[in-house]
Design a protein that fits this description.
mainly beta; 22-stranded antiparallel barrel; single chain; 9% helix; Maltoporin, Chain A
Amino acid sequence: MFTNSKLAKSVKLACAFGAASAAMVAPTGALAQDAEANTVEKIEVTGSRIKRADIEGANPVTVMSRVDIEKFGITSIGDVLQSIPSAGSAINTNNNNGGDGTTTLNIRGIGSNRTLVLVNGKRWAPGLGGSVDLNNIPASIIERIEVLKDGASAVYGSDAIAGVVNIITRQDFEGVHASGYLGEYDEGDGNKEQWDIGFGTQSDKGNVYLNVSYVEEEPTFAGDREISAVPVFGTPEGFGGSSGTPFGRFIFFDEGANFLDRSGDGNGGLTEWQEPGSRFNFAPFNYLSTPQERTNIYGQARYELTDNISVNTTAFYGNRKSEQALAPTPLFFGSAFGDTGFVISKDNRFNPTDQDLSTDIPFGEPGNLFLVGRRMFEAGYRSFKQNVDQFQFNGGFEGVLEFADREFYWDATYTYADITENQMTDGLLNTDRVKKAIGDPAVCRADADCVPLNLFGGSTDIGQGTITQGMLDYITFTAQDTSSTKLESYTANISGELFELPAGYLAFASGYEKRWQEGFDQPDAIIAAGITSGNARQPTSGSFSVEEVYLELAVPLLADMTAVEQLDLELATRYSDYSNFGDTTNSKVGLKWRVNDDLMFRGTYSEAFRAPSLIELFRGNSDSFPPLTDPCNGGAAANPNLPGCAGIPAGYQQPNSQIRITVGGNQNLAAEEAESFTYGFVYSPSQVEGLEVTFDVFDIEVDNAVSSVGAQTILNACAQTGQNLCSLIQRGPAGNVVDLFNGLINLGGQTTSGFDYNIAYNFETEFGDFRLNWDGTYIDERSIIIVDPVENTSTVINEAGKAGDRDVVPRLRTNLSLTWAMDDFTANWLVRYIGNTTEECAIDGGELDQQLCSDPSTEVGGDSFNELEAMAYHDISVGYAVNDNLRLTLGVNNAFDTDPEVSYSTFANSFDPSMYEVPGRFFYGRVNVNF
């Protein structure tokens, strides 16, 4: 337990810096000191349901206060949490292609749906995929955030594999607080603003708090930054570009059965296709960071009905409007994609070939239409808009039950949450109408709405070209999709001290929870019918329920002995019974050994699990177009050692870098299982006042992971064996992959191990008070276990220190901050360090590999690698308290204008937005008012 002098020192430091931290103040609750009795209030520590006076548990917890959050100078609490060293790559608002406006947290890099998010100890509603959108939790309501970096399913249930984020809101606030924030990049774009106001009042019987916040973030365009203005940075013009061009690409067999690869000339004719110069640079037309508008209303109230019973409620409503933008829609069709029914009629007056071109004519015969790629500049940008309403209500009772001269704490809570999302997508094409508009003019004339379509012109100006508005009105549509998730639960908990042992009281916590989750995704009817130029997908709908009971014990073993001031054993177990996959039991054992006031050792072993999400269980089949490499390029003749390439015509080359695959859910999925070990120490030497050192080793293993085999793995396995997984691949007569099924199964797993450290030092000088905090995570191992379901063999791939598409795993990631406070002035310097990583660097397998990869292969076509060097962002801010009620802050993020490391394996922008930031200095100002 903290001594009174230690508590007083913590409070003094908190006042000096306006912040609490794991190294300074109790990390998990408000401490109350009775001046006469010299007692400390019992609190609930994140990772345990037992209220206790000793705030140091066996679990490693990182704490961020409200002022710590403001030091990052950004508007999304999700972006703040993604910046902590233990966080891995995760989706955020810098993900445009593939993003959906959400920001998630991926502790340890093992998956954002394996991190449980709580608000005031209550489960926060996830989306269909099982991850929580942290953007919808306003920063202005937060008192502090506690990040438990340990498995905790025995205490909290599903999803707590990598850890738990517990967001604690302001409690017992009285008065009014308001703040305003404005910021933008030095390029004059990416403007962000945040406004909030909160009201609080309290009496002897209770308190009420209400908060309203508004955030608006404007976009940046990829074309406005050098690194992202081309598909692959540093390559020749056109390299990595798309076959879908503003003037069109047309591959067909002419009347003499000659295989022709042609580009539109912009004037209605055709010319030779040139590689790579004819390809379209789509990059400048994409968002680099996406726009958002968020409005949130939060309220909480507590009232004492009697001396021992209180009623409490919290209610939250949030609305998010977000958007992603891509270059104009590419219309792709042809026998290369397995399409049928597309005929460009020779009677279509825009057809310059004077022959019928058809997907239904066999490959190699005159008139076979192998590929058309036409970028529909006339239709404008593709726009993907989300309008999300989220509501969550928690209400219940809590109190103290006195029995046998002891106090037992209890609570009972009802939770209801609803997330409804309406999605609108502009710039899509109805492919059934495209077929009619390019086909027999007589058939088109029979439809009063049909307008013959001109694919043989084009323009490089958005909204301009040879496709008229009448043509667009017939073939384009705006997709309107709707999705929803609901969560409902009843929980009851009780905790207290049972009886006294020689070393102290044996304490317990026990509880019951009943939870229901349901959800659906209803795509637009045209998308569901599969007649769209975008990704087709089928509806999703499903539900499940779970009943759970748990028991937790804190057993004091030894106390007040030489070298053993305190030795406690922590035990927990939870039984969960799911309606869909059955039951599971998960347990935890922890040990805490306080040697003396200066030194404490701790360790835990935890079992954890994750129930499959609604989307994993019930997702309807849908299209996806990932970048893949067909190992059978060149056909059978060029790959004599690959039996799976037999029968593929000689000279075959993959027509497009993105291959259509089909993904879908699986109602027979079982729960994921995990085991984790953590052990370490906390050291606060009395000889050095203000210094605290923590060090914790972690080792996590996930089994039975919900995953897909992987589209590239399927292609490679089939090519190498001629049997394994080949049934999942459908090829056309030209040898091209028409479709590939990559559904979900319980397959494989992953392991990750390493250590966390934190060194915090607070000291006072005549020049002011200083706080130095160094927080870091080192990844020793991160292995992905891939299982071949045919051969029943597994392959272990160590990914520590590697980078790939949307997954950067630096071995070392650290944050180093120096805070200074003197009188009314404060200043903060934050250094965010990202260690070096290595990626596979297959640019073209030849000259470009030699030029751009830091470690190119010595053989043409060999394995090349590229190192992403270590780098750091420097954030600087200064603050001034004008008076007791008004505070001003000015800051700049990325003060030294450090560019992200160039990556050749990432999906877009030539850098990974899940780890690195939009290039440029970001300047901001903040005003805080309290009265």
